Amino acid sequence: MGALPHAPGRGPAFGLRVAVAGLGRVGTACTRALAGAHGLALSAVVQSPESLARPLPRGVPAAVARCEAGALADVDAALVCVPRDRVVDVATQILSRGVSIVEAAEVHGAEFREHREAIHREAVRHRCAAIVGAGWDPGVLPLWRGWLAALLPKGRTNARPRPAASLHHTLAARGVPGVRDALSTELHAAGGPVQRYVYVELEPGADLERASARLRADPLFLGEETLVFPVESVAALEDESHGIVLERWGEAAGTPHQRLLLEARFDPVALTAQILVAAARVLPSLAPGAHTLLDLPPALLFGLQTAAASEARP
Questions:
Q1: In the chain, which end has fewer C-beta atoms inside a 10 angstrom radius, N or C?
Q2: What is the DSSP string of 96-123?
Q3: What global pTM score does this model have?
Q4: How confident is residue 8, by pLDDT bands cut at 50, 70 and 90?
């Protein structure tokens, strides 16, 4: 794919000037994510006419420029965070200003194809790039499914909500010396034994290995595979409202009985904001038109995180 032209002094080497369209939960989270993003800077917020006179949400810089979608200028990219029924209209207005966009509308199937095509037409018309469906689903979840299928091409994938909490095992874990609080969950693997995931909040100075050994020695946990994970706050973990377990069984390179497991617990608003910001960094390398996360080179999407992870390896 070809690259979009940039004026002198602009582009990734100098930092992208980014606007956020819509200041609901996702848009406000995007402003926070941009504050810590390398090579990106919040330059403007796009609001509806009736919202321009209202105070900015808490945490949004008071000095940031404010405008309507049709008046946006002097930015390189915009994150479209408006309600789903307004995404195409707002995206169209911003693209008409020559500004590339990223959006995360939750649409699927035939509706997603129509949605992408509508944005694609406008992006090509105005010679801009657009990344559509850059949220949780569509977005990150299909990426994860795709990687699991690439590793085990002959197999099946099962997706289900995060493991449910087990009250009795949680109480037993909370009684282990050195454990301030705990949360025990269980995972029923297809055709296999029950796995226990125990999240422990330790007392100051407590040793994780010693606490883990005592926990696994409890009769309630004997005979089961028990994985112990330290967390800063069990209360915060319990407050999380979203999670998923992805499991794939299959064959790799002719070797059967392979199994991949991914458990995720997260705030979908924060995750969506983070992937919108990561995707914005890729826009200058894309040809005009609408793209999805599946179309993007992972090295560009991961950005500096890839280099940092490589340098951290022993």
A1: C
A2: TTT-EEEE-----HHHHHHHHHHHHHHH
A3: 0.72
A4: very low
